[in-house]
Design a protein that fits this description.
Belongs to the homoserine dehydrogenase family. The chain is α+β, with helices and mostly antiparallel strands and about 525 residues long. The protein is built from 19 helices and 19 strands. A hairpin with an 8-residue loop joins strand 16 (about 430-440) and strand 17 (about 450-460). The two termini are about 30 Å apart.
């Protein structure tokens, strides 16, 4: 008997016949007249539902009988139509019925709503906990999957679309494929990568990609655009959708609104959106709230370190954050940690960082300080400050004479930086080291804070001074902790670390779905 309780009755090809009219509800004999008229016309009737809000009655019939049913009821209620008691009788075709027993029907309804499935009709027998819902046939399979995983405690399927399969994206896909069995067993979440895209093409696999995913991307023929992805998710009725942006694309972030409006939650290692003008930033938050969607971006600052989450929690709990300061760039951490301790020239250390893959192909992208500035702005906005990128004071480490030259010329003239940085190093107080820091300070209870990105000299014994390798460090000062900051330190860069952080965000979104 128990196994039957979890079964879902699933009827396709049905139509709803709707009566609409003023003061039509609760009138004695209406149901009897409907049944009688339809029985005489040899039409079998399913659910009858009265909707007080809409002043109407809905009846369920086979789709093939819908036209006949409408005509037969128009004849039966001719007098009511003339008097205006019934304003219209019409059919809604292409619907399906799902019948099931649910211990907690509100939870099932909430899961359906989160996936943009809203029943057209609802009929509940409270004593038996039995429910019948009617949904459009374009969403019936999706509704069935959601209800099934809710009432039978089957693993919940979460469908992932991975945008960008460079270092981070590729590593992430491999991490998901490796861990999926373990996650299914431990967390009852079945992660499926159903779409992988680069800037040119997007590959789809409804059942989920396996280790040959790269071959499928190579042979894919669909152009890489968001409409393709949204259509694919609708045509295949996919529930629990997450799009993961591993690009650094200014263009792809323009799709965040459309994705949120079409049922996708967002996870992103791409920093661009969170540093757009504040109006755009707020517009997306509004779209997310309106559509009950989530947007996680822990890896925007500090790769896999739990930094944004910590700041969010402190801020939401009413803790006054008074300053955030630290070494935000793994690249510049490596450069100045080594330059401060070794006798090598500045250009030698830059070349070494370039060879090890720590810097961007053009090191000026790191040395300009823009990356650190973006990260600092993201943290400022977590505190509800309305700073814009233009408000940040950035010390660009590249001399003006080398700003506009080609990348190859810049690399060939790197030694022109040596003299100046040697001088800066030698002019420090004893026992001090150089660090390139981001600093958010000022009165952070006002609309705007002060944002500085600059090279500073700090005691070698301080938390900033003891930084090693390419690690990042963040000091969060609060009113309660006074002069003793909360310090978060660790690997702040690298594809593996970033991918692991993105994976953490995916799981967090999945668990709340």
């Amino acid at each position: 008997m128990k196994s039957n309780a979890n079964e879902i009755k699933f009827l396709k090809n049905r139509s709803i016949i709707k009566f609409e009219g003023e003061d039509f509800l609760g009138e004695i004999g209406i149901d009897g007249r409907i049944f009688k008229a339809l029985t005489l016309a040899r039409i079998s009737v399913g659910v009858i539902s009265q909707q007080a809000i809409e002043n109407g009655i809905s009846i369920l019939v086979q789709e093939s009988d819908s036209e006949k049913a409408v005509n037969c009821l128009i004849d039966e209620f001719e007098a009511e139509r003339k008097s205006g008691k019934v304003s219209q009788i019409y059919s809604i075709n292409n619907v399906s019925v799902l019948g099931f027993v649910a211990e907690d029907f509100n939870k099932v309804l909430a899961e359906l709503a989160r996936n943009n499935v809203f029943p057209l009709l609802l009929n509940q027998i409270a004593a038996e906990k039995r429910v019948n819902i009617v949904v459009t046939s374009s969403q019936d399979e999706k509704a069935k999957n959601i209800i099934e995983s809710e009432i039978s405690k089957k693993p919940k399927t979460v469908h992932l679309a991975i945008i960008g399969h460079g270092n981070v994206g590729k590593t992430l896909i491999e991490q998901v494929l490796e861990s999926s069995d373990e996650i299914k067993r431990r967390k009852k979440i079945d992660l499926k990568v159903v779409a992988v895209a680069n800037s040119r093409k997007i590959a789809f696999n409804k059942k989920g990609f396996d280790n040959n995913w790269n071959d499928e991307v190579v042979t894919a023929e669909n152009p890489s655009n968001v409409e393709e992805l949204i259509n694919f998710s609708k045509e295949n009725q996919l529930e629990n959708l997450i799009v993961v942006d591993n690009t650094a694309s200014k263009d792809f972030v323009k799709n965040y609104h459309a994705l949120a409006e079409n049922g996708f939650d967002l996870v992103s290692s791409n920093k661009i959106f969170n540093t757009l003008p504040i109006e755009e930033y707020r517009k997306l938050r509004y779209t997310l709230n309106k559509n009950n969607r989530r947007y996680l971006y822990e890896t925007n600052v500090g790769a896999g370190l739990p930094l944004i989450d910590t700041i969010k929690l402190l801020h939401l709990s009413g803790e006054n954050i008074t300053r955030i300061k630290g070494v935000f760039s793994g690249t510049l951490s490596y450069v100045f940690n080594n330059f401060s301790l070794r006798d090598d020239k500045f250009s030698t250390i830059i070349n070494e960082a370039l060879e090890k893959g720590y810097t961007e192909p053009d090191p000026r992208e790191d040395l300009s300080g823009n990356d650190v500035a973006r990260k600092l702005l993201i943290l400022a906005r977590e505190l509800d400050l309305i700073n814009e990128f233009e408000d940040i004071n950035i010390q660009n480490l590249v001399p003006e004479s080398l700003l506009e030259v080609s990348k190859s010329e810049f690399l060939s003239r790197l030694e022109e930086l040596d003299e100046e940085y040697q001088k800066i190093k030698e002019n420090q107080e004893p026992g001090h080291v150089l660090r390139y820091v981001g600093d958010l300070h000022g009165d952070l209870q006002k609309e705007k804070g002060e944002l500085d990105v600059k090279l500073v000299s700090v005691p070698a014994t301080s938390a900033l001074g003891q930084l090693k390798g390419s690690d990042s460090i963040f000091e969060i000062y609060t009113e309660s902790y006074g002069e003793h900051p909360i310090v978060i330190m660790g690997a702040g860069a690298g594809a593996k670390v970033t991918a692991r952080g993105v994976f953490g965000d995916i799981l967090r979104v999945s668990e709340t779905k």
